Automatic annotation (TrEMBL):
Taxonomic superkingdom: Bacteria
UniProt organism field: Streptomyces peucetius
Keyword vocabulary terms for this entry: DNA-binding, Transcription, Transcription regulation
Domain annotation HTH araC/xylS-type: ranges: 236-334
InterPro entries according to UniProt: Class_I_gatase-like (IPR029062), DJ-1/PfpI (IPR002818), Homeodomain-like_sf (IPR009057), HTH_AraC (IPR018060), HTH_AraC-typ_CS (IPR018062), INH-QAR (IPR052158)
The UniProt record lists the keyword DNA-binding: yes
Keyword hit for Transcription: yes
Protein name, per record: Helix-turn-helix domain-containing protein
Amino acid sequence: MSRSPGPRPGAGPGVVAIAVVPGAGVGLTLWDMYELAIACAVFGIAQPDLADPWYELRLCGDTTGPDSAGGVFGIRTTHGLDGLVGADTVIVPSVPEACVVGDEPVPEPLVDALRSAAASGSRMVSLCAGAFALAAAGLLDGRRATAHWQHTGELASRHPEVIVDDSVLYTDEDRILTSAGATAALDLCLHLVRQDLGARVAGQVARRLVVPVHRSGGQAQFIEHAMPKTADDGIGPVLQWASRHLDRPLTVAGLARRAGMSPRTFHRRLQAATGTTPLRWLLTQRLALAQSLLETTELPVEVVGERCGLGSAANLRHHFTRTLRISPSDYRRAFAPPALTGKRR
């Protein structure tokens, strides 16, 4: 997976252009509105206490196509589809339902606009069935992509050149990003905020939306709970304890003993509860702590590595760079608060 950091703080995160394409005669469905509303809630509501300027939002529609104000839900766009071209980020939250479950092709004006936007350097994003539009434009050829698990089979069948992965919440490959359905759209939108403005801002946005800032694992989490609800389950309390003691040399065997299980049982139950393996869960928690420390403290990288349990600075750099595609020092320079940016790291 290839990721690149977004605009630097102070320059603004740029223009987010959303393609609004209602189906002929039916307008926007409930699910279309859900994913559109998620993108508008994250990028369209200014939060100057977190970042100023915030994103500039454009709603772009095909003025020659069906009336976007008709059907089940109506919404008036502020730009034509040509407004997608030149935007910093282009989001396709949906396509007409007939393009997914029927034989109707993705509207050609949308396909043309997406190709032009990608050629202009825009970061291209789809939410759920919006992947069908990116695929129709050829933007997913040879790339890993996802959509709602109910639609991934059809996506793979229609576009065999796309590497369809139905096990993940979202994909991020070379500024082409796709998400699974429903709430996974919010996961991806928060991921974009984290890229552009850092983990601290993304965390604050998530708190205001009353959602987790990051969910490890894949689409299995729509079925399995990310964390067990019962206090006596054995998994939940151990994970909470581990998250408070990440500086310790935690092992799967040690956590299993604390949970009163064999390592094999612990591995199986944690994977069922979180959708990921114990070692990957630990690494995710440690990198999240490292991000927070890099953003909010002046601790040397060596000490950050110790505090988050990754040990040496070299080991922190290895995992941080491999996972986030940016070094700890560059991350700190990009996302530390202005009061710290002029101080020695």
